[in-house]
Amino acid sequence: MRTIRIGSRESRLAVVQSELVQRYLQEQGIDAPIITMKTTGDKILDRTLDQVGGKGLFVKELDAALLDGRSDISVHSLKDVPAEENPRLPLIGYSDREDPRDVLVLPEGETKLNEKLPIGCSSRRRVLQAQKLYPRMGFRSVRGNVLTRLKKLDDGEYSALILAAAGLKRLGLADRISRYFTTEEIIPCAGQGVLALQGRKGFDCAILNGYVNKESEIVVKCERSFIRAVGGECSSPVAAHAVIQEGELFLRAMYSKGTGEMGYVTGERKGPVHDPSGVAKALAQQLMEQFEQEKG
Ligand SMILES: NCc1[nH]cc(CCC(=O)O)c1CC(=O)O
Questions:
Q1: Which of 32, 61, 188, 190 could connect to 223 by a Cys-Cys bridge, CB 3.0–4.6 Å?
Q2: Does 124 have pLDDT greater than 70?
Q3: Which domains does the chain have, with CATH numbers?
Q4: Residue 50: pLDDT band by 50, 70, 90 thresholds?
Q5: Where does the record place the Porphobilinogen deaminase N-terminal domain (predicted)?
Q6: For the whole model, what pTM was predicted?
Q7: How far apart are alpha carbons 162 and 126 in whole angstroms?
């Protein structure tokens, strides 16, 4: 029997996500043990993501395991994978997209926001967009995995959290969702809701063809091309969300410089499904010029 060892972060969400791939491989008659590892990003919890050096800290250990042969594929939340990819460790496929929206979560038993407490979210992308929806609310960063954040919320540290619907749904916690934000109210992070499979260059990944979703690949490549084109990463408030509508690619995105003190601009663009990076680069250029005109 062929064995494919799955490298995974050790959070409950990461393991649940890896089990989705494991189950598919087992159904194909493949032995697919999950090898969990704590990443540097998971260990540093007293600083925000941009202070700890960005998303690369959430994949470094998994990449090392692939390179030294302790694992054969990694399963990632794509939104946590740096936009600049390592050609020796290509992304080899993408899952069906879970709900891409951001959501508001209130403390257990609460039905409205306590204006005396901040809303917890670490992403500048979320803060800037949510401030427009909740102009009277304060915001404070929150680190840790989803379950850790929910405990901080229920312990009274925050009036609410802004989280990804996808993580809560995969954890079986959809009932904690108090409000769904439309992808216009809060443009999601590039790749939000999609799992990325990563392997060593040359890895025979044909067995995964029945799992991966080619439409997901098109839309997330468009989203990540936008992030690369504007030079964005975790600290800069950038967002991109693409869908395929009536055979056309539709991209909505947000751009700001620095950490967003100057505000941000948003825009949309349609284009051919076969040219996701072309659509992304055109919107990136448009928004960078618009930002300089309006905020520069
Ligand atoms: N870094 C946090 C993270 N990475 C992936 C998800 C959710 C799952 C996904 O978007 O696929 C989350 C939780 C959140 O943003 O609320």
A1: 190
A2: yes
A3: 1-95+194-212 (3.40.190.10), 102-180 (3.40.190.10), 213-296 (3.30.160.40)
A4: low
A5: 4-202
A6: 0.95
A7: 7
